[in-house]
Amino acid sequence: MLIVAGLGVLGTTCLLGYYATNTEYQPPQPLEVTKTQEDDEQVAQPTEEEVSQPPEEDIAQPTEEELSQPPDEEIVQPLQEEVAQPPQEVVQQVEEEAPITDIPTKTEESEQPVTSIVPVTDESSTKTRKYPEEATYVIIGAGTAAHAACRAIRKNDQNAKILVIGEEKALPYMRPPLSKELWFSEDENVGETLVFKSWNGKERSVFFEKEEYYTKTEDFSGSDKGIAVITGEKVSSVNAEGHEVTLASGESIKYGKLLIATGGKPKEHAAFTDDEVKSHTTLFRNIADFQSLNDAVRNAQHVAVIGGGFLGSELACALAVQGKKRGMKVTQIYPEEGNMAKVLPKYLSDWTTKKVTKEGVEIVSKGAVENATFENNQVKLKLDNGEETLADHVVVCVGLQPNIELAQSAGLEIDTQEGGFRVNSELEARSDIWVAGDAACFYDINLGRRRVEHHDHAVVSGRLAGENMTGAKKSYKHQSMFWSDLGPDVGYEAIGICDSSLPTVGIWAKATESDTPKAAEEASGESIRSDSESENVADESTEKAVEQEAAEKTTTKVESDEESFGKGVVFYMREKKVVGILLWNIFSQMPVARKIVTEGKDHEDLNALAKLFKIH
Ligand SMILES: Cc1cc2nc3c(=O)[nH]c(=O)nc-3n(C[C@H](O)[C@H](O)[C@H](O)COP(=O)(O)OP(=O)(O)OC[C@H]3O[C@@H](n4cnc5c(N)ncnc54)[C@H](O)[C@@H]3O)c2cc1C
Questions:
Q1: Which residues does ligand 1 sit against, CB inside 6 Å?
Q2: Atom 5 in ligand 1: residue holding the nearest Cα
Q3: pLDDT (tens digit, 9 = 90+) per residue, 215-254?
Q4: Looking at ligand 1, which atom is closest to the CA of residue 457?
Q5: CATH superfamily of 275-397
Q6: Which class would CATH give 132-173+208-267+399-478?
Q7: Per-residue pLDDT at 543 exceeds 50
Q8: The domain 481-613 belongs to what CATH superfamily?
Q9: Report field, pTM of the whole predicted structure over 0.90
Q10: Buried residues in 254-268 as b, exposed as e (16+ CB within 10 A)
C-alpha cells in the first residue's frame, strides 16, 4: 500500500512529496505551515546530536574505526609484535623500520637486487619454478578488494612483500565502467584501450594502477619489498595449517597471512543449456565479457537482456544508446513488476521503468524465461507468461554466486543463507586467513550478518582486511555505499540495507540540471563515486550548512506527482530505526547518510532527518 502525504514547499518552486510504503511503520504526520518552538527542537536535535556532532571532530577527524579507513595518514603504524608473523620458513620482511616510501618507481625497482628467474627446485618435483616460493602476504583474486588490501598493507608495513594471484589475465581493475561509461565511448577500439570518459568528460583507464606500480613476478623473490601479480592462474587449494596455497598449474606458494578476495561469478540461467544458445549468450562480469559483448552487438539487430537488477538495467540503457546509433533493438526481460524492484520502493521502480523505456529499451516485465532454443541463427526465448521473442544475442544478468570453491580445502565455513565465506567482524575466517569483497559474509556490528556485492564495499572491506593482516584488529564499522547510474542523467547512491520489502519513507523534490550523475562528477572531479566520498567526509562546512538549512526551513503540504521524483531521499525502516538510505539524484551527502545508519538510533521525525540532505 502506498501512502502519499504531501509535505512541503520550500520557497515557491520546490515540490516536496512524502512517500511511505509497507505500512507497518507509520511515520509521524508531517508538519504543516507554521513553525513552532517544538518544530525547532525536532529539527535541531538530529542536526546536533545525530548527524553533525561536532563536525570538526567527526567529519574532519573521522573517529578511529568508523570513518578512518581511507586517508593514508590515518592508518596507525602497526606495533612490531602486531605485524604479520609469517611462518618460520617465510622470509620475514616486516621487522625492520624502513623510511616511508611511495609506490615503487622504475628507478627504485632498478636499485633492487636484480634477479632473473632464479631456478628453484620444487620439493615435489625437479621442475624449475615459474613463480615465487613464498610471500609474507598472499592474496587470492586480483580484483577490487585485493587492490584495496594491497594499498592498506603497504601503508601499515612499508616493507611488505605482497603476492597477488588472479585467475583473469588482467591486472587489478574496476568493474563499474564495464556496464556504464565504456559503452558511451566514441572510440572504436575501446575494447582494447579500456579507457573511458567519465560523465564529467575526464579520461580514465579501468586499471587501478599502471603496470610499473607492480614488481615483476620474476623479480619478486629477490626484492626487499613490492607487490607482484600473477595473472591467469587459479588457486586450486589452500592448506591452512601448512600456510600454503597451490595453483591449478601445480606450484605451491607459502604465505604468512592470506586474504581470499575471490569475488563471484554470474549465476547461470537454468533455461540456457543448449550449446548454440550459450555461444550467443554473455554472462557479464569482466573485461573479456565486455569485449565479447561489444563485438557481438556490432552485428546484432536485437539484443535481449535478462534481469531487472542494477546490472541488467544499466546494460540495457547502455546498449540502447548503441542501438540508437545502429538501429539495434534492445529488450529487457525480468519477472518483477519493474526495474530494480528488489531495491527501490514500488513507486520509484515504476518511475525507473518508464525512464528506461524512454532510453529506448523495450521492457517485458512479469515474465520469466522458461525456455531458450536456437532457431534460424537466433535465440528464441519463451517466457512463462506465454510471450516469445527472438534475439541475435542475449545478456544474462540474474545475480552473482560468490566464488567459494576454496572453502573445502581451507576448512572454511560457508554461510548457508547469504552465501560466501563466514568471517567475524574483523573479516577473519580462521588464523591468518581473511576474506573481503563480494565473497565475504561478514558480521556487521550495527546491522548483523551480511554479504555485500558492491564496489565500495570491496574497497572498504579489502582495506580493513589489509589493515588487520598487519595487526590492526579493527572491526567492520565503516558502512560502505553503493551507486548505480542509468546513464548520465539519473543515478542513486545508497547505504545500509536497501531492500524494497522493508517499510520505506521517501521525501521528494524537483530536480534541477545540477542534480545528475554527470553534474556530480563535474563537481567532484571523480568518476568512481566512492573515490570522491572521502573528500566530502572531510568537508565540515557542508555539514554545517546542512545543519543551518535544516534549522531554518519550514514546510507546507502539497500533493506529490511523478515529476517530484526528480530527487529525493528514501529511508528504509526497521521499526523506528533507519537501516538503509537511498539518495536519488542527490550526491555528495553520503557521510550524512552513513552517520544516521551507523548510529542506529530511533527516529520519530523523518522530515527533519530528510532536511539534512540538502534536497533543496
Ligand atoms: C559490470 C559491473 C558493474 C558494476 N557496477 C557497480 C556499480 O556501479 N556500483 C557498485 O557499487 N558496484 C558495482 N559492481 C560490483 C563491484 O564491481 C563488485 O562488487 C566488486 O568488483 C567486488 O570486488 P571483489 O574484489 O570482491 O571481486 P572481483 O572484483 O570480482 O575480483 C575477484 C577476482 O578473483 C578472481 N578469482 C576468483 N577465484 C579465484 C581463484 N581461485 N584463484 C585466483 N583468482 C580467483 C576472479 O577471477 C576475479 O578477478 C559492478 C560489477 C560489475 C560486474
A1: 140-146, 165-168, 175-176, 178-179, 234-235, 261-263, 284-285, 311, 403, 406, 437-439, 453-456, 458, 482-484
A2: 176
A3: 999 999 999 999 999 999 999 999 999 999 999 999 999 9
A4: 19
A5: FAD/NAD(P)-binding domain (3.50.50.60)
A6: alpha beta
A7: no
A8: FAD/NAD-linked reductase, C-terminal dimerisation domain (3.30.390.30)
A9: no
A10: bbbbbbbbbbbebee
What angle separates helix 310-326 from helix 287-298, to the nearest 10 degrees?
30
- Ranking 136-140, 264-268, 385-389, 513-517 by mean pLDDT, the lowest is 513-517
Q: Distance between CA 224 and CA 93 in Å, rounded?
A: 7
- Single-letter residue type at 240: A
How far away, in angstroms, is 402 Cα from ligand 1 center?
Answer: 10
CA of 438 to the centre of ligand 1 (A): 7
| Beta strand spans in 486-566 (E) | 491-496, 504-509
How many other C-beta atoms are found inside a 10 Å radius of the C-beta of residue 15? Answer: 20
Using the mean position of ligand 1's atoms as its centre, give its distance from the Cα of residue 285 in Å. Answer: 7
Ligand 1, pocket-test mutation among 169, 175, 406, most atoms within 8 A of CB = 175
Cell of 502: 522493508
Judging by beta carbons within 10 Å of its beta carbon (0-12, 13-18, 19+), is residue 145 exposed, middle or buried? buried
DSSP three-state, residue 450: strand
Which residue lies with its CA nearest to atom 6 of ligand 1? 176
Q: What residues does each domain of the chain span? A: 9-111, 132-173+208-267+399-478, 275-397, 481-613
